[in-house]
Amino acid sequence: MSSINPHYTFHYSQPEEYRFSHDSVMLARKVFEQVSVNPMESLRGLDLCSGCGIVGLDFLFHSRKEKGTTPAVFDFVEVQGIYRQHFEENLQRLGPISTRTRFLNTNYNQMLQDQSFFGSYDLIVSNPPYFRVGQGKLSPSEFKNRCRFFMDSDFATLLQAIKKALSPQGKAYLLLRDLDDHGWNAFSESQDLLAPTFKIEKVDDIRGTALVCISAN
Questions:
Q1: Rounded-to-integer distance, Cα 63 and Cα 70, Å
Q2: Where are the domains of the chain?
Q3: What does the DSSP assignment read for 158-216?
Q4: Which residue from 51, 145, 181, 204 could staple onto 211, CB 3.0 to 4.6 Å apart?
Q5: Which of 26, 13, 18, 17 is nearest to 52 (CA)?
Q6: Are residues 129 and 149 in contact, defined by beta-carbon separation less than 8 angstroms?
Q7: Contact, 79 vs 107, CB < 8 A?
Q8: What SS3 class is residue 63?
Q9: Tens digit of pLDDT for each residue in 119-142?
C-alpha cells in the first residue's frame, strides 16, 4: 500500500516535537469506509489516545463530506494536556459540524472508574502506542515517550476500557502491531484478554500494521 494518503482533509495543528504519521489519517478513512453504510446522526463516537484529534476529526470530515451529516457525539480522550490547544485549533479548522465534541484530558484507566463511560459509544477509534516499556529505545523527551510507549497505563487496561465503553452493538477499530523482535504477538494477546465476551478480527492493513475490529460476541 502507498504511504501517501489519497483522501486529503486539512492541514493539522500539532506539536513540533512529535508529528503524526499517515497511519492516523489512513485509519480514519478505513474506518469511515467500514461504517459509512450505517446512519450517522445518532452515532456516539470516541477517539481514544486521541493526541490532537486527527483520527476522530478526519472521520468527521469524511462523514460530513460524503454523507452530509456527522455523528451526534464524538469525544476525544487524551492523557497529555499539551494536545488540548492543538485539538481546539483543529476543531476550528475542520469547520461547522453538528457533532457535540469534548476533549477529555484523562487516561483510559480512569474510564474504568467513571460509569458515565460505560456502554456509551457505538464507535471507538484508536491509534494507541505500539510499544511497552523495554520494547525499544526511550527518548530523552518524556512527551515523546508517552506518545510511543504504554507508560501511563498498559495494553490490557486499554482493552478493558474499550470493553466497558462500547455499547452493546458498538465496534472499536484500532491499529495493532505485533512486535516479533520483542516476542510480543499483540493480536494473540488481545484474543486472550477479550475472550469470551468479545471478539477481535483483522479487517485491513495499513502500511504493515493490522487494522482490527473489536465487538461483542
A1: 5
A2: 22-209
A3: HHHHHHHHEEEEEEEEEEE--BGGGTB-HHHHHHHHHTTTEEEEEEEEETTEEEEEEEE
A4: 204
A5: 13
A6: yes
A7: yes
A8: helix
A9: 999 999 999 876 555 556 666 656
Q: Check pLDDT > 70 for residue 180.
A: no
The pLDDT tens digits for 196-215 are: 999 999 999 998 889 999 99
Q: DSSP secondary-structure letter at 114?
A: -
Specify the CATH number for 22-209; select among 3.40.1190.10, 3.30.565.10, 3.30.420.40, 3.40.50.150: 3.40.50.150
Please write the tens of the pLDDT for every residue from 144-166: 555 555 656 688 999 999 999 99
Q: Look-up: residue for cell 491499529? A: 175
∠ Cα 189 143 174 (to 5°) = 35
Give the C-alpha separation, 216 to 172, whole Å: 10
Cα 139 to Cα 146: distance, rounded to the nearest angstrom: 10
3-state secondary structure of 121: strand
Residue in the structure block whose three cell numbers are 485509519: 27
Q: Which of 4-13, 44-53, 199-208 has the lowest mean pLDDT?
A: 4-13
Q: What is the pLDDT of residues 96-112, one digit of tens each?
A: 999 999 999 999 899 99
